[in-house]
Design a protein that fits this description.
Layout lengths: L4 H12 L3 E4 L6 H10 L3 E4 L3 H15 L2 E5 L3 H4 L2 H9 L4 E7 L15 H4 L6 E4 L3 H18 L2 E7 H5 L22 H12 L4 E5 L7 H11 L3 E3 L15 E4 L6 H9 L2 E5 L14 E6 L13 E4 L2 H8 L10 H21 L10 H11 L5 E4 L3 H9 L7 E4 L9 H11 L5 E6 H6 L4 H6 L5 E5 L5 H9 L14 H7 L3 E5 L5 H10 L4 E5 L14 H16 L3 H18 L1
Parallel strand pairs: 1-2, 1-3, 3-4, 4-6, 5-6, 7-8, 7-10, 8-9, 10-11, 11-12, 13-14, 13-15, 15-16, 16-18, 17-18
Helix pairs in contact: 1-2, 1-7, 3-5, 3-16, 10-12, 11-13, 14-15, 14-21
Length: 579
């Protein structure tokens, strides 16, 4: 049997470092499926929905450097789009194979016909539809090279007849190249940067995910400058530990007052590899310096005064010899004191909560942080569960945290946990899932069951779309169509051969979490949290206050006085942070 295009595709993926493929097989994808089976080196993960497969591949790429997902003709690969949007915006190298109808049927509005080159254009760094075997081989090598070099999604449209065709000789390389350039500003720019920093007393560092491999250098710079160290949500897991003497917390929608105030009191804000999206939280009166490996990001979120292209580790190594050691600790002392006050307030929310009537979600997150392994991987849904993760999950020796922080999609935590559990089998993987998020891709619990992926899925079961409720309130709307009627998640888990624990009262939470974490296989921990537990951002404007008042008045008119009382109790405690 002569080698076909699908055989070559498998060899290329293996050579590039791909370990598994997330896909639902069928029709035009079957030649690839057969090649994977015969080769035996790639694991085929039969997901129940291609969107889940794209998220899982994205997480594998984030942790291991490359991921792969596939979708069959038309509806199959269309399902990939949301997960690929997330992967591309998170800069995760993902190879997506979008198989299509046979070439002779294209352009005639045939059954399941799509145009991959148009469909995936906005969620990829590279997309190409191969109409011949030579194009398929050339296109695959180029796709992989784009994904790993440009850090994002690359899509190869592959008609079924091309996938099954015999290979033909091409000039393209049969392998791909992982380059690791050392990127720094020029010496003249480093001198300029050092001059700005040396010329101002109060400097704050604001760190993003791009500081992942420069933790030691960032800490050294903070020590030299006696600088408060803030971080984005995606960067917090590298720096937010109680023993970090420079940490002042997050800024942004999920941030706190200390992170916000430190940034706005600084003379110089040094933004280190963060594409922070919440421009309204950034200062306008101080000098802003931004450093990133992608110069196109410079200045697009804030009024940046100095922008430099460089990776953080190399740039700080070259910069620090030019920096004067600062001796005054007034700025760091003031901002750290405020941060410790905020942390004390957070601690007060969980003290004695094991004996109360309702389960506070803060208490759940606090216990997870307490019980989780020191190198646990956390995946976080978009919504209120992300708030509790932002407030209570701390860095360990080697913990990692991620979510749909750039795309902001629901339902990401569980499929991301699948990718983490398969690609990092020796580490504990914990998913913070909202009941709204888990319900969206519920079928892929069967993927977890089928492959016995040992992830721990915590469901914050508040019977509502709580983040949407908060959005409605601050905009003055009366919340409507935000309540949820959920299935019995424990019975559902048992039907899927997944062990499950449940907590309906605060006294049951710690034991349920401990049992789930100790279990060797996959586990679901369903926790009935207070549906009125909401959290406010670190800065609230007068229009938001007016909006909250208007929505409360509408609730009262509609006879929901008891809900107003419960909601107000929860909201008032967070106002303590803002005053």
């Amino acid at each position: 049997m002569s080698k076909n295009v699908s055989d070559h595709l498998v060899e290329m993926l293996v050579e590039a470092g791909v370990k598994r493929i997330y896909a639902v097989t069928g029709d035009s994808l079957n030649p690839v499926n057969d090649a994977v089976r015969r080769d035996g080196r790639l694991q085929w993960i039969h997901v129940r929905h291609e969107e889940a497969g794209a998220y899982a591949a994205s997480m594998e790429a984030e942790l291991n450097g490359i991921g792969c997902c596939m979708g069959s003709s038309g509806p199959g690969h269309v399902h990939l789009v949301n997960g690929l949007y997330d992967a591309n915006r998170a800069e995760n190298p993902v190879i997506a194979i979008a198989s299509t109808i046979h070439t002779e049927k294209m352009g005639l509005d045939n059954f399941q016909e799509t145009r991959p080159e148009s469909l995936f254009q906005d969620c990829s760094k590279y997309v190409f539809l191969a109409n011949t075997p030579k194009q398929a081989i050339n296109g695959l090598q180029t796709a992989i090279q784009h994904a790993i070099s440009k850090k994002g999604v690359a899509v190869l449209g592959l008609p079924g007849d091309v996938a099954a065709a015999s290979i033909e000789p091409v000039h393209t390389a049969n392998k791909n190249f992982y380059t690791q350039p050392r990127i720094t500003p020029s010496y003249e720019q480093l001198q300029e940067l050092a001059s700005v920093i040396n010329g101002h007393e109060k400097v704050m560092l604001f760190c993003g995910h791009g500081c992942r491999y420069a933790i030691e250098e960032v800490m050294q710079l903070a020590e030299i400058l006696k600088a408060p160290l803030g971080y984005s949500f995606r960067g917090k897991i590298f720096f937010e530990r109680k023993e970090n003497p420079y940490a002042v917390g997050l800024n942004g929608l999920l941030g706190n007052k200390s992170g916000f105030e430190a940034m706005h009191q600084a003379d110089v804000l040094l933004m280190l590899s963060t594409d922070f999206p919440y421009s309204e939280f950034l200062p306008e009166k101080c000098k802003i310096i931004q450093i990133d490996t992608k110069p196109e990001k410079l200045g697009r979120r804030a009024k940046v005064d100095f922008g430099y292209c460089g990776d953080i580790k190399s740039t700080l190594e070259d910069l620090m010899p030019l920096i004067d050691v600062k001796t005054s600790t007034d700025f760091i002392d003031k901002t750290r004191s405020l941060h410790q006050e905020i942390e004390a307030i957070y601690d007060s929310y969980v003290e004695g909560k094991g004996a109360e009537k309702n389960i506070h979600p803060e208490y759940v997150a606090y216990l997870v942080d307490k019980l989780a392994d020191d190198d646990a991987i956390f995946t976080v849904d978009t919504g209120m569960s992300a708030v509790w993760a932002a407030r209570y999950l701390k860095a360990g020796a080697n913990r990692y945290l991620t979510g749909s922080f750039n795309h902001g999609s629901m339902a990401n935590a569980m499929p991301m946990a699948m990718g983490a559990g398969l690609s990092q089998p020796d580490r504990q993987v914990i998913a913070f899932c909202g009941d709204g998020g888990i319900s969206m891709l519920l079928g892929d619990l069967m993927t977890i069951s089928q492959y016995q992926i040992p992830v721990k899925i915590i469901i914050f079961n508040n019977r509502s779309l709580a983040m949407v409720k908060l959005e409605m309130r601050v905009e003055g709307y009366m919340e409507w169509q935000t309540d949820m009627v959920n299935p019995d998640f424990v019975k559902l888990a048992e039907a899927m051969n997944i062990s499950a624990w449940e907590a309906k009262e605060p006294k049951d939470v710690e034991l349920a979490l401990a049992n789930g974490f100790k279990h060797k296989g996959p586990a679901i921990i369903n926790i009935f949290t207070d549906p009125n537990a909401l959290a406010m951002p670190p800065s609230v404007n007068i229009d938001q206050v007016k909006g909250m008042a208007a929505s409360m008045a509408k609730l009262m008119v509609n006879g929901k006085f008891a809900e107003i009382v419960d909601t107000t109790k929860n909201d008032i405690k967070y106002l303590r942070e803002l005053l």
